[in-house]
Fold these 2 entries.
Entry 1:
Amino acid sequence: MARFIDELKRTHYCGLLREGDIDREVVLFGWVHARRDHGGCIFIDLRDREGLAQVMFDPQIAAQAFAVGDQARSEWVLGVRGKVRDRGAMRNPKMPTGTVEIVALEAVVFNKAETPVFPIEDDIDTNEEKRLEHRYLDLRRPRLQHNVMTRSRIYHHTRNHFADHGFVEVETPIFVKYTPGGARNFLVPARLNPGMFYALAESPQLFKQLLMVAGFDRYIQIVKCFRDEDLRGDRQPEFTQIDVEMSFVNQDDIFGIIEKLVIRLWKEIHGVDLTQRYPAVVGDDGVTRHFPRMKFDESMRRFGNDKPDMRFGLEHVDLTEQLIAHAGGGVPMLTPIAEKFASGAYRRDLPEEIFKGLRVPAEQAGGLSRAELDKLEGFVKQMGAKGLARAKVGPSGEWLQSPFAKTATPDFVKAVNEALGAKEGDLLLFQFGPETAVHTVMANLRLHLGKKLGLIPEVGAKSKSHETGDWNFLWVVEPPLFERGDDGKSWAAAHHPFTRPHDGSLEDLEKDPGKVLCYRYDLVLNGVELGGGSVRLHDPEVQKRVFAVLGIDDATAQEKFGFLLNGLKHGAPPHGGIALGLDRLCMLLTESESLRDVIAFPKTGKGSDLMTGAPNTVLPEQLAELKVRSLVEG
RNA sequence: GGGGUGGUAGUUAAGUCGGUUAUAACGCCGGCCUGUCACGCCGGAGGCCGCGGGUUCGAGUCCCGUCCACCCCGCCA
């Protein structure tokens, strides 16, 4: 074996051999991808991270090499010295290296391998469970190799981009002080301080603000974050953010640097020039903008969430005004809501209950059978909806097959039809009740219908979205600063309490907290939240007023966030920042269906690592050393 | 925390109304084959039917519980 590696160094990656290498003597190292034995001669497709190359073993040419090829099996690790030759008429147009093959002159078995649990190729239908158990095999598959290497290039371009713009990369602690609010924290027992715990940082939020106070001016970090919440296909307990903070900037400045990064990444990774779709627009204020912006309020009204997928229609229409104007329109289910508005119990500008409709145009609605409509009702019920009122629009605009049809007044029907733009054959779907519930149901219903009706391009390797340029970016801006607390009466910070209120909203802080907007923003791509951030509150007076609304007194604020507040008192520059979800960015750039496909060693929906077996129980002695007792029976 | 789907050979699946020896494809092993590239031909091995209880003369199949994975809601920036 000493000859290979010590004397014979690799000269080429298998997957990169081309016609230009013909007649060269090469040394290749790789895995046996496939072996075809013809008795006299043997073909082996040798695989490395760059791809496959066909190696031909001929006993007439090299008996020693042939013996290796004869013995070799799937996934054995080989070294081959050989000569590249033209395959002539025998070329394989399906392979990038298909015009050439390597005639083996000398070969070595570095290692044998057990029969692989599943084939090392794309488009396998093996359970994800099996794939995660043997992740080292899964990662050998070309698609995951590509994803992991693409991710590496994303790190590289991201760091270069920020370095080019004068950003300083700083590491912040992972073991941090527990701060209340937001996501649940993972806790780490502090052995040197019995009974005490560190929290794993859910983000470097407070530290990056303090780096601004420290004067670093522009901060970047590609950083792991930890949140102990329930998981999804697009959520992991540990994930990576591109974390950014800048001093002496406004919202436009932050958008500018992020838009440039995104444009650069799409150019470098996909070769797509996003500026064709999103050319620079210089506003009256002299600021250059690329991506469109939408106010939070408009997004909720039209799409029911703050991350609209604008690649298709099926927008929502708020019909609460029509409901009020027609006193419930004769529909018993709707009348109580109208009465609440009439009596003044509900405000029109901040309604507690609303009535929304969604129109499925006739050409798409025709494809939905009665049974499928009933299934839709099941779909919304699993999200807590009481039902899914619907109506088919008749020739004269009348409602058919509808629970509202019997009693709805003609004027109300007409008003609703007009608001929705309803035409004959259209299907109308309605939802009414508490605002947040209606929005959740309608937003999910819209996405569900979009997929079902084929209005959203398929995600995955077969997707052509990077070719057709269906990359739909959007900034969602100006959300409310506060939302109702769990009790429905108090106020809680919608983002975090250090977000700067909108200039025009300051007078509402005490009068009408629900109306206060703020400098917070999310970057959305094709309905996926890529990241978000805010301009921070650096005025101690306004900060005090915000805490007052939240019911946090000075002592409590000091106890919870003392270190940040102290920092802000010592000369804090105006600052703001953003964090982009790197995993999601990779997912979209590699057009993967799951976050797990862009993370080398991901965890399952219960947060376990099927390969290593984490988390696991520990010995009583280990707990004792940490002064921790488990409540679970061993 | 709630709902849905699934777990049978190494892998992916079939398995009817509860009834003889649990099927198939791919993979694997052996033999043959010098131009294959989804190589081909002949032969063969391979099973705790997720786990634990129950019903029954008899359970892969029915019932109860439990574990695991995936998807959705809640939760989560």
Note: Residues 12 and 111 of chain A are 20 Å apart (CA to CA).
Entry 2:
Amino acid sequence: MNCNSLRPEDVGREIVLMGWVQRRRDHGGLIFVDLRDREGITQVVFDPRIGRQGHERAGALRSEYVIAVKGNTRFRPEGMTNPKLPTGEIEVAATELRILNSSKTPPFQVEDDVDASENIRLKYRYIDLRRPKLFNNLVARHKVAQMTRAYFNDLGFIEVETPVLTRSTPEGARDYLVPSRVNTGKFFALPQSPQLFKQILMVAGFERYYQIVKCFRDEDLRADRQPEFTQLDLEMSFISEEEIFSMIEGWIVKIFSGLKGVSPRPPFPRMTYGEAMDRYGADRPDTRFGLLLTEVTDVVAQSEFRVFRQAIERGGIVKALRVPGGKDLSRKELDDLIEFVKIFGAQGMAWIKIQADGWQSPIAKFLSPDVQQGLIDRLGIETGDVILFVADQRKIVNDSLGNLRGRLGRQLGLIDPDAFNFVWVTDFPLLEWDSNEKRYTSVHHPFTSPFESDMDLLETQPEKVRSRAYDLVLNGIEIGGGSIRIHQQEIQRRVFQALGISAEEAREKFGFLLEALQFGAPPHGGIAFGLDRLVMLLCGCSSIRDVIAFPKTQKATCLMTNAPSEADVNQLLELCLKVEGDRNK
RNA sequence: GGGGUGGUAGUUAAGUUGGUUAUAACGCCGGCCUGUCACGCCGGAGGCCGAGGGUUCAAGUCCCUUCCACCCCGCCA
């Protein structure tokens, strides 16, 4: 029996309900209380003619008091039903009331449409979590976890827990460190992912492993990034990309059908990394709308416009974004877009409005008729368009126009809010040049298998080597990524070498993996999903904080517990640790 | 490390060019009310305007410093 279970057929039953006082409406002679529990709301009437004691006590009720009510279910009087409530046709006429606990006046009301600021919501998270929206988000998360376990259990996967106290590995994100008391001066690291352990489990012959697991990365936070987050992590032996894709698609179908009643139809579209970067300016393309990027470097190379020419001479490129109907963008709006691309390193942005009576643009006079015709042919320009250009190094052009594309998609209302567009992104490069560290680093991670056909390039043109890595992208957000791994020690050795990781360092940091690869490691691969992000998208939220029970603030603190806190002197002594200096001072 | 938005009553917000006693809504407290469901009506309390410093006859408002929340860049294999 809960506050959402009584219906007309229950009329006449004597029942007991317990819950929280959502609202009290005191009419003097008659008191109404909306009684709330996690399931819903039932109206309770305290009528002195029915329960004198209950009516007297009900006068003391306040918001969020916890009560138990005994009473009889009855129809509401003619015309007094409340169609907004599933229980709106009935009410409970209270005969007895027990106040199980009182409550201070809550800092904000327990309603979905209260817009309390996030800091107060986080401080009083237990009140925030009473709101149906947030509660239901966590229920959805629970269901996803349960459906996930059921799905992979049925496919023969074994859930294995891997250590939370493990060792720091180079590459990747900053580690959270945990000092070891027993081993003075040594530290555990919290795992950024169970990557190495799941590969070792494949060597151990588990064949199919999965885990719903916390991962930790000590990096700056975003709306979709928390220092501790949850992955669905899985790995399989004797597996191909195709098998992984279809298995994951089946999982997505199960979750979407189970939670939303509808599901995208597999197989999901695929796109190479190269195509995604070329046309979407990002490795996580949002395919819910058009506005694709087009490279026009060759078309404008001979133009008189110095900005284009210089960018190209310096090895850069020029890309254009054709915005149909964009001529209505005001000068102010275009200036805002220019400011926007500067965030991503662009020096500026050129624009052309295609008016019926000609091209209106600060740069039109630099574009010869030949160049203009070239642009018309390349971009399929039509009257009413606005064309936006960025010329710079390839990365800056893609970053700025890719993000500009997203902004315009939202601003111009091109995005169907109900759409769930999945796309597999494949054929990532294995390595990328890190100009800070002056060496190649892994695009995915150092254990990702290169394309066998590209292996010869590993020592000669490392940036040309493609990897057997793949991401699953939903609505422009990366929700999962994985790869077929290296299972042969010799290839692993060559990849480490390409990464500039010395043999000694590899032995010291990953020796156990290298050794394991020598003991009959099967070919294997897997994938990991950001469960928080997936649930966030399923719940229509814009931050993973809304699907995490107790999230951290952007400064990586918990406003409810005030973690992190200073350590007790004795704790530090035991650990032989001393805090020196303050980076913030 | 950097850019941006915000911080005024318990909550959410308004506050003009620096000028009398800092507003409103919701919430809260008291009273009245037997059919409300965002109940209604009457009355009331509630403020170190994030904190610190400065300019000024005068600061919520201008300047500087700083703290907090959020969005973003860098960072996040």
Note: The mean pLDDT of chain A is 95.
